[in-house]
Amino acid sequence: MSAVIRLLLRRLGISVIVLIGVSMLIFAIARVIPGDPARIALGPNAKAEQIASLRAQMHLDESLPVQYGHFLADLSRGDLGISLYTNRPVTKDIAQFLPATLELVFCAGIIMIMLGLPLGILAARYRGRWPDHLIRVLSLVTVSAPGFVWAVILMLLFAFYLPLFPIAGRLNDSFDIARVTGFLTIDTLLAGDFAAFTDALHHLVLPAIALSLSGIGQAARLTRANMVETYNKPYIEMAQAYGFFPSRIARIYAFKPSLIPSLTIIGLDFAAMLGNAFLVEAVFAWPGLSRYGVAVILRKDLNAIMGTVLIIAITFLIVNIIVDLLIAFLNPRIRHSARGSA
Amino acid sequence: MTSLLDIQNLKLNFKTVQGQVEVLHGIDININAGEKVALVGESGSGKSVTARIILGLLQELRQARISGEVYFDGRDINTMKPKDCAKLRGTAMSMIFQDPTSSLNPVITIGQQFTEVLRRRNNKLAQAICDEQATRMLNDVAIPDAQRVLNAYPFQLSGGMNQRVMIAMALANRPKLLLADEPGTALDVSVQAQTLTLMRELVNDYQTAVLLISHNLGVVREFADRVYVIYQGRIVEDGPTSALFANPKHAYTQALMNAVPRIVGTGLAKVPEVSDAFLAPRITHSDVT
Predict the structure, then answer these.
(1) Domain that holds residue A202
(2) What is the ipTM of this complex?
(3) β-strands B75-76, B19-32: how paired?
(4) Disulfide: which of A329, B130, B159, B236 matches B115 by Cβ 3.0-4.6 Å?
């Protein structure tokens, strides 16, 4: 297991470097965009000395490297500053809005894996026959439109014409759920309110499907392609020559070796959902990080922009580390690289 | 002796974009129980497809048109349902492949693959019994530290080691027929010779019939009781190994034997132009030369 721990440490080290790079980049970009955040925050009637004092308070009149130094010093204390938009600490804002987005992305990711991989396996198992053709056409259709287009289509079909699902929001206003984790599906269960839990799930269905559809297609296509390649390997012929069941060959003997190359891309897709979620959230009025993110960018709320971007970058890195660990776990060549071979 | 495998007038066509291509033009092969038979020929002569037809694998390919009879243990594999045919694979017959390392699944341990093979015979076999049987089989192929090998992945073992594992797996369920398609061609010559000797001893012990597919006359001469020479989808000569090697009559067999490298080798002799007259006379040796 020591090989896996070394891998984990190396990935964590690289992640820190990546985070520093991202923070510098966003720090510079946010300050290069024209517009004075202090002036925007204080409104058109603010006096010059008020603006000057806010600028001084925000260290805006100092040089960029000095400003970045202040930022790092605050960050080391877990302080991301005050948002000019909400007038609250940025950390508090993120803690409020992030769980809704994570809940959505998490559900979409699970749907993507639970549907995409089996569909890919099925297509590869029946390659060249009708299930394969059907799955390939369907995945091409889902891949060819981005999440927010699916969001609009699904909303029209299943919330408007056929009112099967709620049209927007996370939870019916009639429920009053104590906030513990911010994940409504968990909080409702913690509160023991099963009706609220069902309602939260009900609200989650359409946005999560809209967000996951192109990922499902992508995962299915990728899994199929890698598995069809694997099917030409001698060890599959060997499994066939020994009369193993075709479904077992598909699920284990062909799928396992094919999963490793697929997993990296699926992991990236998963992380990319965070960005796509912004638009899907906008369509479904989902009270997640997107509304906050868009608002703070338009107001040049520097601290809030930094906080939002950093939290997205961290999520990206965490997903990547998880994928790397999964690959190490699945690939015996990596897992056993520390041991000598026979 | 009753024959275990009886192939009669086997023809194979492949449907391609250009039309039908006939690969096998009606071959007859006969193997008795416990007999070691070799099928010799060059690449593309139809050796490997023959093995896959015996296994019933090629029948599942839609582009393949197969006619003729392939009697295994009295039942015709060509007319059998795919399901019934699959029941024979891994139990009554098994196969050894060219490259042992790439024929074992890279992400599954040897032990798990061995268990899967053993459960072909009895799918309720307990893990402990599987391990015990696998260990015994591995000991039989001269692998003393069986436990380490069972826990290993193919990439952690040498090619020769994997080849022994393949042999152990192939014989674990005591099949009646073992198909060996160029076994160990991917290995170096001395390791190949070692594993072949091992395989010969085991099949003699277990009374397993073998169809050895090879282009290596040295291997064939060492291993087989009887030889079929296949050329361009036809059997051109057959007979007991000693008789055939002592007096090869067909021009192709002679060319094949002259092609074996010697110190004073002259390279591949010219085979006369292919004609019906060249392919038609099948030469069968009797036991006396």
Answers:
(1) 90-298
(2) 0.86
(3) unpaired
(4) B130
